[in-house]
Amino acid sequence: MRFVRGCRRRGAIVGTVTLCLAAGWALQTPGGVSLIVPQPNINATVAQNVLLSVEYSCRGIATVEWKHVSSWGTTKIVEWKSGHYINISSAYKDRVTAFENGSIQLLNVGMRDAGYYFITVTEEYGTNTYGTIILNVYEIIYEDLHFVVVLFVFLAAISAILICFMWLCNKSLYLFQKKTHKLTASTTEEIELETIEC
Questions:
Q1: pLDDT tens across 147-160, in order?
Q2: pLDDT beyond 50 at 22
Q3: DSSP 53-72
Q4: Which string of DSSP letters, residue by residue, matches 73-107?
Q5: How many CB atoms lie within 10 A of CB 190?
Q6: Which string of DSSP letters, residue by residue, matches 112-153?
Q7: 18 falls in which pLDDT band (50, 70, 90)?
Q8: How far apart, in Å, do the first and last CA atoms of the chain sit?
Q9: Stretch 32-36: mean pLDDT
Q10: pTM over 0.70
């Protein structure tokens, strides 16, 4: 019995020491990638520039890759190794800017740019992490703008008609008062003449 208990204790001690050594080795081994996506859902309108913002950190050299997934399919946008090369796909050649922190900016977005954007950050030791940003792109509804313009023109026309009507009323009142004033002046003159003749 003693022998069995002693073996179990030694096995537990050896297991604990092995676990501690493995944890220490993992902490000293370069590696590990962290990725922060501060805004996972972005709304934009057509022709707007959009920043897909992320922040990654790792101990080694990382490779960053962005892909776009939508109902039209999956497209690789850009891939680069920090401090080295940038490989932008031909579909995004003049429309994307890559930043050292892992972020990209899409210029002049369209309806086809809506969808899911996946970023993969892979460290040189093989560890990697993933992030997703959802981009919603909306069209500016010109019918609503057209309605507002038509309503504004209609109200401006009604205002112009009312101003003209008020001017005509004012002019008519002025002419009527002028005519009435002449009439009362001539009547007063006749009364004075009759009084003098008597």
A1: 788 889 999 999 99
A2: no
A3: --EEEESS-EEEEEEEEETT
A4: EEEEEEEEETTS-EEE-GGGTTTEEE-TTS-EEE-
A5: 10
A6: GG-EEEEEEEEETTS-EEEEEEEEEEE---HHHHHHHHHHHH
A7: very low
A8: 162
A9: 91
A10: no
Per-residue pLDDT averaged across 97-123, rounded?
95
**Of 136, 143, 144, 145, nearest in space to 45 by CA:** 136
- What residues pair up with 133 in beta bridges, in sequence order? 117
Q: Are strands 41-45 and 128-138 parallel, antiparallel or unpaired?
A: parallel
pLDDT above 70 coverage of the chain, percent? 75
Spatial CA neighbour of 50 closest among 33, 73, 66: 66
For residue 139, pLDDT over 50 is answered with yes
* Residue the block writes with tokens 């112009």: 160
Structural contact between residues 30 and 42, judged by C-beta atoms closer than 8 angstroms: no
What whole-number distance in Å separates Cα of residue 6 and Cα of residue 65?
54
Tell me how far apart the alpha carbons of residues 33 and 82 are, in angstroms, rounded to a whole number.
13
Helix (H) / strand (E) containing 52:
strand 50-52
Show the CA angle centred on residue 38, arms to residues 60 and 69, nearest 5°.
85
Measured CA to CA, the distance from residue 155 to residue 190 in angstroms comes to 53
Task: Give residue for tokens 């002693």.
Answer: 6
102 close to 119: Cβ distance less than 8 angstroms: yes
The single-letter code of the amino acid at 180 is: T
CA-wise closest residue to 114 among 85, 81, 72:
72
